[in-house]
């Protein structure tokens, strides 16, 4: 199904190595070639590369496999850039959604052609010619039909349940592909004796949510997290104990503990109640002319100086 | 000497051997080891062993075998002819290490240096003689590296055999001289008639001695350098002569294990965090990109979004 395509270079000398389904370059039904277009990435709000399939009926996202120290030998040429491009089908609704949300704040029902407009990325209107676009708008908007024309208004509620379905389908796909979703590192070759323990469902949900968040705004991602009933992951920073280093400040230094209790009368030193026999016999020894032990450690008495 | 098996695939190592004389299986034998073509930047390195019964040592002397370096090419060819004719009591075996084998050994991830390669080849040939039933009692070797260490290594590997490692052994022991002649003749023939695996059209075979200091060799190396591939397999890429020329004239190629990039520098390039950053509480926050982190599904698979082709 997937074929390795070696594109002949256009004006530039560079070519790319692309893996794409045959349908991407299928020009039999349509006259126009597939085209790479720059569109607003819903997650980053910046330009990303997409591909519109023949006649703009299918949207594909373009991802690059990129590692250090890679080059291609293509035919009789060497290509410095060792990238491998993947062109994979994508739901155009993800790219349309930001425009719907933006105008949804106005709260009006509008024809979709009026909603999906972007000065920076004029190509965004081509998204509407994708077969799936108009057919799936009802997943995220309320619709009204007046005089044969359809008007739309963004609905967060519908969007959430749509995204939830997407998460569930992603979980199913992750399970089928045995994608490692747990925290920490797992070796792909490590075979567990026991089946995966509990809590796996949440791991899958969280992983799928993270994956989906690559296609929606941060705000929407947070809302989806709540909608899925997943608690915010506790940040490791908060769990950390406070730094031990004291901070310098102009405020007067105050003792962290109250030492005044040691001044009270009942804290006065009491003589030890009992002495051992050894201590007793030592106490009886004649100590005249002997220096106390402490005198060896104290600075010399200055009395001699006189 | 039939070199066709090496010429069929001159990119790898190849063993050639004479028939084992019957007398060598029954009588105590001595064996000499020597090598030819250690220094040149071009062509293979050939290891040779020659063996005969200890009782026939004098006969070997009568053949007037001498250090191959003191002989002309024709004299060597003639002597090899005589050795080959004396097949009733003299046997030989050769290991031809192609320049490609030398290059790939010395330049692989875990470096395998020329001395180790030499020792292992010599050991392999002695083992071959033993496996063929030659009754080895004495082994004479021209040294590679410190003689005492090499001698100890060989003695331990082959208990019961008296191993003598000497510098200049090829002029001291006739059996080593004989081995050196076999090795040298094989190398000369291979180099003279090198079958280039590459399509070089009318290749200019005037490459001189093949030693790095030979101006002819240098000129040939310059002429046949390809900016992308470097040299034909005939050249030992691990030789500094070849490397220096490629560094200055050929396209730069970066490898995963490039020497210059170690420690800090490599870590920085790979976007790794310094170990120190894990000990201070605040560093984590500062380091993180203010824009969102790509999900690990993509980072683990080295997948990135593009904004331009």
UniProtKB/TrEMBL annotation, chain A:
Q: Which GO terms describe its cellular component?
A: nucleoplasm; ribonuclease H2 complex
Keyword vocabulary terms for this entry: Nucleus
Q: Which Pfam families does the UniProt entry name for this protein?
A: RNase_H2-Ydr279 (PF09468), Ydr279_N (PF17745)
Tell me which domain of life the UniProt entry assigns to the organism this sequence originates from. Answer: Eukaryota
Domain Rnh202 triple barrel intervals = 28-91
Q: Name one GO biological process term.
A: RNA catabolic process
Q: Any idea where the Ribonuclease H2 subunit B wHTH domain is?
A: 94-224
Instruction: Keyword check for Nucleus, yes or no.
Output: yes
Which CDD domains does the record cross-reference, listed alphabetically? RNase_H2-B
Region (Disordered), start-end ranges: 228-306
InterPro entries xrefs: RNase_H2_suB, RNase_H2_suB_wHTH, Rnh202_N
Localization recorded for this chain is: Nucleus
The principal localisation class reads nucleus
Composition bias, Basic and acidic residues: 235-260
Family to which the UniProt record says this protein belongs: Belongs to the RNase H2 subunit B family.
The function of this protein is:
Non catalytic subunit of RNase H2, an endonuclease that specifically degrades the RNA of RNA:DNA hybrids. Participates in DNA replication, possibly by mediating the removal of lagging-strand Okazaki fragment RNA primers during DNA replication. Mediates the excision of single ribonucleotides from DNA:RNA duplexes.
Summarize subunit and interaction data from the UniProt record for this chain.
Answer: The RNase H2 complex is a heterotrimer composed of the catalytic subunit RNASEH2A and the non-catalytic subunits RNASEH2B and RNASEH2C.
Name recorded for this polypeptide: Ribonuclease H2 subunit B
Organism of this sequence: Salarias fasciatus
